[in-house]
Amino acid sequence: MSAAHRHLMLIRHPETVANVESRYIGRTDSPLSERGLRQRAWLANLVAPWGADAVYTSPLGRALETARAIAPEGCAVSVLEDLQEIDFGQAECLTYDEIVQRGIRLQYTGSGPIAPDGETGAAFDARVRRAGVHIEAGPERAVVVTHGGVMRRLLMHTLDLPVECGWHFAVPNATVAVIRIAEGVGVLESLTPPPELSEDRA
Predict the structure, then answer these.
(1) Phi/psi at 17 (nearest 5 deg)?
(2) Confidence category of residue 199, pLDDT binned at 50, 70, 90
(3) What residues are paired with 179 via a beta bridge?
């Protein structure tokens, strides 16, 4: 790495309509829900004073639009194809009940397909590692806007934990993780879900 110390702020995109419907969306896009829009505003206020040097994002609209909305003034937004969510193949856009009804089994561990006709675990792992290497070679304080699966995998790589452990981390929409990296060692400083907003309590 080019600096002795660096900080990463990893952000899962805010809630989408598909998230409200409990659908598995990877490469399919979905607009932000009303709560998602409020979460995006909260994220912008959180990112503003953090002092980001760069913002990296998935090319999918739910992440890209969020990245552009929360990027501090004058901070470039860079799109990384490798930050896209998992391709769920035959499970794409289905709810969990629909997946069960069709006899589809999701395999998040191992190197084979995560879902029939979808991305393999090996391909997913390889591209997330590429994204991580690219980001860690960049500016000292970077914000990364991505998806639940990718965020979990980035956390495991950066913290040098077994990749299977990532699925034991709850990462709700708009969750923010801050990681400090010193001499190649990552330390999780915080893992913060979005606050309950007044509209959500009504």
Answers:
(1) -60, -40
(2) very low
(3) 8, 188
| Percent of the chain at pLDDT exceeding 90 | 87
Read off φ and ψ for residue 116, nearest 5 degrees: -50, 135
Sheet containing strand 141-146, edge to edge, reads: 77-79, 54-57, 141-146, 5-12, 176-182, 185-192
Active-site positions read 13, 85
Q: Give residue-wise pLDDT tens across range 110-140.
A: 899 999 999 999 999 999 999 999 999 999 9
C-alpha–C-alpha distance, residues 38 and 171, integer Å: 18
Please compute, for residue 173, the number of CA atoms within 13 A of its CA located in the half-sphere on the CB side. 23
DSSP symbol at 86:
P
What's the distance, CA 105 to chain centroid?
Answer: 23
Give the residue among 89, 82, 136 at the shortest CA–CA distance from 114: 89
What is the chain's length? 202
Contact 194, 15 (CB under 8 A): no
Q: Is the pLDDT of residue 196 over 80?
A: no
Q: What is the mean pLDDT of residues 37-50?
A: 97
